[in-house]
């Protein structure tokens, strides 16, 4: 079954051009089925790109997925047309009385700020607290993972000496865990961040499980023991061009960002990017939807 999204959302036509199976809401309402209701809090500046990335990886499942988009009310996005936000996004006050099967909190380019100095931090804390009683499973991405680990468990983030940027090899500690079912012993995933969480801090928290790790990139997948919270420190949803576009933006800004590691063929930016992470990204999201959302959520939330 496809992901169910608004008919006019730009991601719909972009994904259809890739032959990704999506369904407009006008067709979806004709099907007598209980879709999974997934809420996405989009904190990324290029919101249309992020929508497309996430909807692509949510679409590869036999389950029908109904998506709602959320923004914070305490921060005004500058890189997305206001009409797009008005047409497709809701604020927390509009949805706080609802329940959702799954919830995704994206990353945000605010890593070098203390959490308490982020303009929407108080609002995000309220949303994360709300998710514990109104959502079956919440998946946190990159800075969203660091924010969730800090808010729920007091785990700090640490600034890195240089930007961790590229595609890195990871390994799984427990291959029997449903979230990584079908994963290879070693797999690749993209990262782009200036800060990290540390293994020793995670291991101090009895309620957390470190599921996947990397010699270079550090902890990658962390779970709460009841599987209601999943923390992903990288960006498995990224498409082929994302790291390259970010590298070019950093170059134009005069930043000293190194070439994204293991991304271009032979690490040569004049050559084509090589996608090493797509299959595991699809597995990660499909497994999350199936085992942590669909198999766990009540049919009738009331």
From TrEMBL:
Reactions performed catalytically: L-homoserine + acetyl-CoA = O-acetyl-L-homoserine + CoA
Gene Ontology terms: biological process: L-methionine biosynthetic process from homoserine via O-succinyl-L-homoserine and cystathionine
Residues at which substrate binds: 163, 192, 249
Enzyme Commission code(s) on record: 2.3.1.31
Active site: 142, 235, 237
UniProt-listed InterPro entries: Class_I_gatase-like, HST_MetA, MetA_family
Keywords: Acyltransferase, Amino-acid biosynthesis, Cytoplasm, Methionine biosynthesis, Transferase
Keyword Transmembrane: no
Compartments, as annotated in UniProt: Cytoplasm
Site (Important for substrate specificity): 192
MF term (GO), any: homoserine O-succinyltransferase activity
Annotated positions for site Important for acyl-CoA specificity: 111
Pathway: Amino-acid biosynthesis; L-methionine biosynthesis via de novo pathway; O-acetyl-L-homoserine from L-homoserine: step 1/1
Entry GO terms, CC: cytoplasm
Gene3D superfamilies: 3.40.50.880
Superkingdom field: Bacteria
SUPFAM superfamilies in alphabetical order: Class I glutamine amidotransferase-like
Function: Transfers an acetyl group from acetyl-CoA to L-homoserine, forming acetyl-L-homoserine.
HAMAP family in the cross-refs: MetA_acyltransf
Similarity comment: family membership: Belongs to the MetA family.
Record's protein name: Homoserine O-acetyltransferase
Organism from which the protein derives: Thermophagus xiamenensis
């Amino acid at each position: 079954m496809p992901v169910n999204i608004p008919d006019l959302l730009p991601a719909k036509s972009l994904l259809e051009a890739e032959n990704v199976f999506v369904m407009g809401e006008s067709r979806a309402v004709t099907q007598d089925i209980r879709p999974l209701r997934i809420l996405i809090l989009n904190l990324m500046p290029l919101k249309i790109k992020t929508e497309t990335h996430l909807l692509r990886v949510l679409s590869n499942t036999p389950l029908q997925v109904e998506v709602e988009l959320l923004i914070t009310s305490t921060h005004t996005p500058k890189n997305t047309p206001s009409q797009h936000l008005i047409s497709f996004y809701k604020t927390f006050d509009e949805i706080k009385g609802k329940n959702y099967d799954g919830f995704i909190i994206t990353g945000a380019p605010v890593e070098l700020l203390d959490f308490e100095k982020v303009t929407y931090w108080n609002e995000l804390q309220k949303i994360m607290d709300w998710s514990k009683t109104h959502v079956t499973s919440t998946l946190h991405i990159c800075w969203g993972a660091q924010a969730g680990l800090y808010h729920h468990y007091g785990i700090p983030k640490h600034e890195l000496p240089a930007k961790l940027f590229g595609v890195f090899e990871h390994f799984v500690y427990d291959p029997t865990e449903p979230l990584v079912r079908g994963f290879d012993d070693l797999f690749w995933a993209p990262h782009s961040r200036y800060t990290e969480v540390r293994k020793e801090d995670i291991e101090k928290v009895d309620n957390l499980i470190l599921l996947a790790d990397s010699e270079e990139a550090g902890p990658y997948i962390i779970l709460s023991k009841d599987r209601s919270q999943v923390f992903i420190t990288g960006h498995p949803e990224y498409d082929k061009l994302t790291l390259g576009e970010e590298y070019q933006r950093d170059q134009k800004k005069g930043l000293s960002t190194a070439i994204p590691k293991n991304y271009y063929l032979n690490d040569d930016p004049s050559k084509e990017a090589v996608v090493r992470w797509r299959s595991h990204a699809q597995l990660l999201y499909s497994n999350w939807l199936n085992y942590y959302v669909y198999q766990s959520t009540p049919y009738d939330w009331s």
